Write the structure tokens for this entry.
Amino acid sequence: MHGENTGPMRYTKPHVERLPPNIDAAALANRYSRDITGEELLSLAGSLGVSESSLWLLGVGRAREYPTAYSFPMYDERMQVVGVRLRSADGSKFAVWGSKQGVFINPADELSGTVAICEGPTDAACVMDWGWKVIGRPSCMGGVMIVKALLMKHQPTVVIVSDTDTPGQTGARKLAGELQGLTVKIVEPAHGKDIRAWRGLGATAGGFQWIVDNTPEYQG
């Protein structure tokens, strides 16, 4: 027929999405925790400016199949380990393939009284060093529903520790808006980009408490 395409037919290879594997995140986190040495824990604590004990309470480990990577378990609202965050020596952050997003927390803490909410496990460790119960969010916008479920169950007073950048401030306000019915404050470090940087500049537990005490409740 006139105009008929007589050339070879071309087939497009179908796109096959690579689905993440099902992992036993709790078993993996436990193995990593067993694999970290005392020297490695001391080195990490020194480089971050936090205590070894707070890192240990957060379940820190050493993921040896990833060069230089340290690990932190991530928990859901049932306090089940659902993923593993990795942090390389250069500060880059990623997660074990197959992880689900969760929060960083000492699972032995009873979330009553007053609880601080930070960004990430290292800022969480910093505030834990000052004697606070802490939940670390996976990012400035992440973990909202998990944090909300944990807090609404225990009804504590909440102090959201925001980074000083725009995404951090936006994420803090978004979380605060989800916590209706709870007493909530949003605080920022007096200096530096985040609470751990401020501590490195000389912040103390007393200075942090002063900011908390002199910050009004969030009104939306």
In short: Confidence is low (pLDDT under 50) at residues 1-9. The chain has eight helices and nine strands. The CA atoms of residues 144 and 175 lie 6 Å apart.
